[in-house]
Amino acid sequence: MADHHHSQKCCSAGSSPQDERILDEQLDAAGQSLRRALKMSFSILKVIMVVLLVVFACSGIFQVQQDEEAILLHFGEIKGPVLKPGIEFAFPEPINEIIRIPVQRELSIPIDSFWYYESPQEKLRKVKSTATGPLDPVNDGYCLTRNDSLEGMAGTDYNIVHSAWTVTYKIKSPKDFFENVYIRDREPGEDMLEAAADTLNPLIMSLASNAIVRTMVEYTIDEAVKNDAKIAGDVKRILQDKLDQVQCGIKIGDVRASRIVWPRQVDEAFQASSKARQESDRIRVDAESYKEMLLTNTGGSGAEDILEQLKQPGLLQEQKEQLVSKLSGQVQSEISEARLYRTQVVEAARANAEYLQKILPAYRKNPELVLQKIYQDAIEQVLAGADEKIFMQTREGLADEIRLMLNRNPNIKKEKAKQK
Amino acid sequence: MKNYWTILSVVIVVVILLMSSVLYQVRETETVIVTRFGKPVRPETEPGLKGKFPRPIEVVHRFDSRSRLFDDTPIEEISTAGGESIILKSYAVWAIAEPGVFLTAVEDVESAEDTLYTLLRKAQNSVVGKHYFSEFVNTDPSKIQFKQIEDEILSEIRAEAMQEYGIAIKTVGIKLLDVPKDVTVKVFERMKADRNRKRDSILAEGNAKAERIRSDAEAKQKELLAVATTQAQVIKGTGDAEAAKYYEMLKEDPELAMFLRNLSALKKILAEKTTIILGVETEPIDLLKGIPDIEPKQATSGTGN
């Protein structure tokens, strides 16, 4: 019970000096912990500030990407050379400003202002419709080309062609490009070239159209429709000249005419003319193969060249013979015949001579008999070989007449006999 | 200590405000004119940090100095010197070069474009009117004056644009060169006629070429054969000469030789397809009539010896 009392007392004694001491101690502990907490927050704040300072300092570090180059503006003025890909440092705006320029990217623009008007349905059709009407300069694009110069024709003769082109370009000099080419302000998240396209593409298209118009008047329609690389080359050269005149730092990569065609209104006449060209080529090729056939038959392959060599002046007989021996065909067969003749004539002469020599001793001994013998042998041979032999008995004082039906080809007679 | 910081911040703010009112940037892409009480006093075309009196004493007017395209011209039909009509459209590339002049004469890009519209059309019409159609397109390329015409248009507007409006014209050009609508029909007719003429001449040319090739072939064939004949003659001649050596051997008995020669000729001639008609008296056919009257001859050798 006494313990209980004591404890009650103890617990209810809130304002005793001992209690105050305890409270003070407790308050002191709170203050201390507050102080500690504050101290800690300050040190955190310090760290944050240091971090912020570092971040701020580092915010000046930036990377120039692989496909771009950058220009550093210092109070609006270009400072130092153009920055190549890599890590660079700049002060924050407004001291420095970084202009990134994508130099690697090649852009292409189609130029179809020289093509005739086609409705969307017509564009999809593969076979182009025919047209007979006039061309309206507002809707139908075309270029003028010069005509061939012909005697008796006016100098102002020209033709009309349609063409469609593609031009590709790249930024070559970032400095010139930045300084001299107007580009509208960029929208957030927009790439420089996207913003540039709005103003840059019309500029390049105008300059390119100018170059195309100027180039085409220098060519004839036949040259134009062949779409020679030279035409695109000329357009490229004039276009590049114009761009350089404006100092816009742009380099034209490729100029290509995807299509150059004559107007649909004259299609029939042009088709006929190109057919005529094919026909003309065919006639020529035919003649050439005739020539080859003829000369090969006559002198073998390479006969024409050999003939040219034979015609050279001052050839020795030996050289000529050597060249002729290279020939074959009809020439060679004529020469072979001559060789055969030569052999035959020589052999025959020798045989005759030898025969004479052989019979001469016998003949000298007994000329009549030998002659008779030779003669009879010959007659026998002749008579034996004759197809028909007719012997007539002649009677004195009577004029005998014999009529013969001679058939030029006795075989016909034989065949007739067989048929019977 | 606390006061020191406060004063410092105030000073910094004041300095910044002051600086921003007296300092300004000219960007590389800009050109600037400073006006004092509304009067242009100082053009700044070089980039960098510049100073001025604060507003309202001096005011900075900025213009974009980069080149722009102007092609808002109409497609226009113009009469050339010879009276033939031509349809063209030109463009110009321009930039603000004299900000002072530009500010007073033009003020902004939109008005500048209106000015260019007038200038370019005027120059284009007057220059084209001085040239013949044949200087735009000609069968003789050396007579084409396209570049010169463009240069003339440029020089006609360049000075005026600069002096009167502070605008630099970088280049001008013709981006469309057409002929009036009804003329195209005539051009087509002429192109067709021209093509038909070409078609005929192409065929004629092809035929002529082929004929030339054929006759050349035939001539060459003859030449080859002539070569062969000559060569053959030489060979035959050699053969005859060689044979002649044997003829010497026949000289021992020319009569016999001739007889033998004739006989062999006879054999050759009558070798084929022959019909022979003979009298029955011919030897040995006379044998058909009967046995000839032959008596044995005395052996001369035997009796003689």
Explain what the structure shows.
The complex is a heterodimer of chains A (420) and B (305). By secondary structure, chain A is of the alpha+beta class. Chain A has helices at 2-12, 17-59, 120-124, 174-180, 192-216, 221-225, 229-246, 267-299, 303-311, 317-326, 329-365, 367-385, 410-419; strands at residues 61-64, 68-74, 77-83, 86-89, 96-102, 107-111, 143-146, 158-171, 250-261, 388-392. Chain A contains 13 helices and 10 strands. In chain A, strands 6, 7, 8 and 9 form a 4-stranded antiparallel β-sheet that branches. In chain A, strands 3-2-5 form a 3-stranded antiparallel β-sheet, covered by helices on one side. The N and C termini of chain A lie far apart (178 Å). The model of chain A is unreliable at 1-14 (pLDDT under 50). In chain B, a hairpin with a 2-residue loop joins strand 2 and strand 3. In chain B, helix 3 runs antiparallel to helix 4. The chains are: A alpha+beta (420), B alpha+beta (305). Chains A and B meet through strand 7, strand 8, helix 4, helix 5 and helix 7 of A and strand 8, helix 4, strand 9, helix 5 and helix 6 of B. Strand 10 (388-392) of chain A pairs parallel with strand 10 of chain B, so a sheet runs across the interface.
Short structural description:
The complex is a heterodimer of chains A (420) and B (305). Chain A has 420 residues and is an alpha+beta fold.
Tags for this model:
heterodimer; A: alpha+beta; four-stranded antiparallel β-sheet; three-stranded antiparallel β-sheet; elongated; B: 305 residues; alpha+beta; 7 helices; 10 strands; rod-shaped; disordered C terminus
